[in-house]
Structures are given as structure tokens and as C-alpha cells.
Specification:
Oligomer: single chain
Strand order of the largest sheet: 1-2-3-4-7-6-5
Number of helices: 9
Structural class: alpha/beta
């Protein structure tokens, strides 16, 4: 089984978005799961509802309207024109299934498609029919659609400004891991910390070899926050400690054996000297 098959990317992304937008925490309502239609239709997308007349400070959400739909694709997922229109269809279904359709007008919904790698072909295709504007690194706005839409390329986003969502990757560096751990340690709000736990768990699971190496080399940041890491990392830490204890026991036994040999060697040397003094050849 591939590691991505076991990683729960979507819940971690939802947590990362709550952290990204925490400056407007009181102005937003998050729906991590939303049932579309009365028939069983399992679709993982995030809905963020914004209060009226509120301006979102984070550049990811500065175009937010009343209802904002996020479709997140994990690092291994493909993103093409079909993916784009599927995300658009979610917004259409969301509107049609509202209790009072008139309460959710066309202009009160935005759609965001999120992916780590830049979907070059998709952006080119959209640019042939619609207006695609690069607002800033990693944020591409599409005008002329039924709903205001954007494509977020997390690999291009500023890592300092968007530490949480950019950490959802399989290619985390040690430096970025330290920044992530540092940002976690600076959180004071319990809800923020719970969201950060989710991000840390997935990030460490997706970058298991990096975090194992950090633990193995005695990285103090990783040591202090090891309880936040994926179970596999914690298990590795336990095994490493057990192996270290076993090696310490072996070293102690070897040291005892060496001491015994040294004592016996000393006794033999004394005995030889006594025999030599008595004129007895050995």
C-alpha cells in the first residue's frame, strides 16, 4: 500500500485553512463535511461561510463572499479541466440543494481549487476562454465563470505567510519542518493547537524519513514536540530508545568483561614476577 493511501490529507487541509484564516476566526463558519442531495453522495470539500461586510485579511480569502467552497487535491491527485468543472458543479449542487435557493444567489458563492503543483495545462486551457489573473505567487483568479473562482498552488505560496497549508507536502525540508514546529509552539489558543496537531500528524506521516532522521540525530525541536507527530514516528522514537538501551547494556557488559580481563591480566603479571623473583622460569 502506498503511503498516500493511508494519509488523511483532506482533514489536515481543513485544519490548515482554519489556521490560515484564524485572524478572522469570529467571522467564519467551517463545514468540513457537506452532504449534496438527499441521495448518498460522499464528496470531500470544505465550505467556509463568511459574515456579511467582513474583509478577510489573508490573501487566500480576500475575495470571499458568503459561501466559499474549497476542493483540495492531495499531492498524488491529478488536476485537469474535468477536475475544475467538477469543483464548479459542487457549487451548483450546493446552491440547488439550499433550503431557500434565493438565500444563496450566484454572486454569493466562490470556488477554490487547491493543489501543490501548478496545473500548467489547465491554466492554459482556462486562459483561452476566461480571464486568468495571477494575483500573487500561488494564487490564480479566474473571471468570467458562473462563480468567482481561484486556483491555489501551495508550492508557490509564500512559506512564511502560509506556513500551514504549504506544509501539506511530501517534500518538506528540515528548515521548513523547524518553522512548522516553531509556529506550533507559538500558538496559544487550544482550538488552534488542535488544528495544528492535525497538520503536524499528516506532515510527519508524509515526510516520515525526514522526521525519523531528525529524531535519530537528537533534534531538540522534534524531541520536544514528538507527541504531535504521526504514530509511526513516535513508534520509531520508542524503538530507537529501546535499541539505545540495549546497546548501553551491551556496552556495560563489555566494559565489565574488559575490567575482569584487565584484573586477571594484572594478577598474572604479578604471579609471573613472583615466580621470576624466586628463580622459577615460566
Amino acid at each position: 500500500m502506498e503511503i498516500d493511501d493511508t494519509i488523511q490529507w483532506h482533514p489536515a487541509f481543513c485544519s490548515a485553512m482554519e489556521l490560515e484564516l484564524r485572524e478572522n476566526k469570529k467571522d467564519l463558519i467551517y463545514e468540513r463535511e457537506h452532504n449534496l442531495s438527499k441521495m448518498p453522495l460522499k464528496i470531500d470539500f470544505l465550505v467556509i461561510k463568511k459574515k456579511q461586510n467582513v474583509i478577510i485579511k489573508n490573501e487566500i480569502g480576500d475575495f470571499f463572499l458568503g459561501n466559499n467552497i474549497f476542493e483540495y487535491k492531495s499531492p498524488n491527485d491529478d488536476v485537469n479541466i474535468g477536475t475544475f468543472y467538477k469543483a464548479l458543479s459542487y457549487a451548483c449542487l450546493y446552491k440547488s440543494e439550499a433550503g431557500n435557493v434565493e438565500e444563496i444567489i450566484d454572486t454569493d458563492i466562490t470556488v477554490s481549487l487547491v493543489r501543490e503543483q501548478k496545473p500548467v495545462k489547465l491554466l492554459k486551457q482556462l486562459g483561452e476562454k476566461y480571464t486568468v489573473t495571477k494575483k500573487t505567487n500561488g494564487i490564480y483568479r479566474i473571471d468570467g465563470m458562473l462563480f468567482p473562482m481561484q486556483i491555489l498552488v501551495t508550492k508557490e505560496l509564500n512559506e512564511e505567510s502560509h506556513v500551514w497549508v504549504t506544509s501539506l507536502t511530501r517534500t518538506l525540508s528540515r528548515e521548513r519542518a523547524h518553522k512548522l514546529l516553531y509556529n506550533y509552539s507559538a500558538l496559544k489558543d487550544n482550538e488552534d493547537k488542535r488544528n495544528a496537531d492535525s497538520v503536524m500528524n499528516v506532515t510527519s506521516q508524509a515526510n516520515i524519513e525526514l522526521f525519523k532522521k531528525m529524531i535519530q540525530e537528537g533534534d531538540h525541536m522534534c524531541e520536544e514536540l514528538k507527541e504531535l507527530l504521526a504514530p509511526e514516528i513516535v513508534e520509531f522514537k520508542i524503538r530507537l530508545a529501546e535499541q539505545s538501551a540495549q546497546l548501553a547494556d551491551k556496552d556495560a557488559k563489555l566494559a565489565d568483561n574488559a575490567a575482569e580481563i584487565a584484573d586477571k591480566t594484572s594478577e598474572i603479571a604479578k604471579l609471573k614476577k613472583l615466580l621470576a623473583d624466586a628463580g622459577i622460569e615460566v
